């Protein structure tokens, strides 16, 4: 089974490997719901927005949608596909790729 190594922007943290199909489904869902302009999407809304994009079958096979969403989100930040908006308050995200 192919796996994707998911890194984190935090220095010194070890990457987490997840099955490639899980990474791709969650990545597609994240990129579908995060806008490419401000004010972006609040991180606290991301898991539910991703869950709403997934099929029942994908949700069942995924396990924890919240954990996978956070893991893939961090890898997308490392890749430069997502970026956190600066400023006070809860974390907000924007997409940097079309």
Q: Which keywords apply here?
A:
alpha+beta; 17% strand; globular; 5 strands; Arc Repressor Mutant, subunit A; 98 residues
Count of individual beta strands? 5
Strand order of the largest sheet: 3-5-4
Distance between the termini: 29 Å
Nearest-integer average pLDDT: 96
> Regions with pLDDT < 50 over 5+ consecutive residues?
none
Q: What is the CATH architecture descriptor?
A: Orthogonal Bundle
CATH topology: Arc Repressor Mutant, subunit A
Give the number of domains: 1
Overall geometric form? globular
Task: Specify the CATH class.
Answer: Mainly Alpha
Give the strand content: 15-25%
Q: Can you summarize this structure?
A:
The chain has about 100 residues and is an alpha+beta fold. The chain has helices at about 20-35, 45-55, 55-60, 65-80; strands spanning about 5, 15-20, 40, 80-85, 90-95. The protein has one domain: Arc Repressor Mutant, subunit A, CATH 1.10.10.
Provide a descriptive summary of the structure in words.
A hairpin with a 7-residue loop joins strand 4 and strand 5 (92-95). The protein has helices spanning 20-33, 43-53, 56-62, 65-79; strands spanning 3-6, 16-19, 41-42, 82-84, 92-95. With 98 residues, it is an alpha+beta fold. The radius of gyration is 13 Å and the shape is globular.
């Amino acid at each position: 089974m192919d796996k994707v190594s998911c890194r984190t922007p935090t220095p010194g943290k070890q990457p987490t490997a997840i099955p490639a199909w899980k990474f791709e489904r969650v990545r597609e869902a994240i990129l579908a719901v995060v806008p490419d302009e401000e004010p972006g999407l609040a991180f606290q809304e991301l898991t539910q927005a991703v869950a709403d994009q997934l099929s029942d079958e994908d949700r069942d096979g995924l396990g924890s949608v919240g954990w996978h969403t956070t893991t893939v989100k961090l890898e997308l930040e490392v890749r430069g596909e997502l970026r956190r908006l600066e400023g006070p308050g809860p974390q907000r995200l924007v997409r940097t790729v079309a």
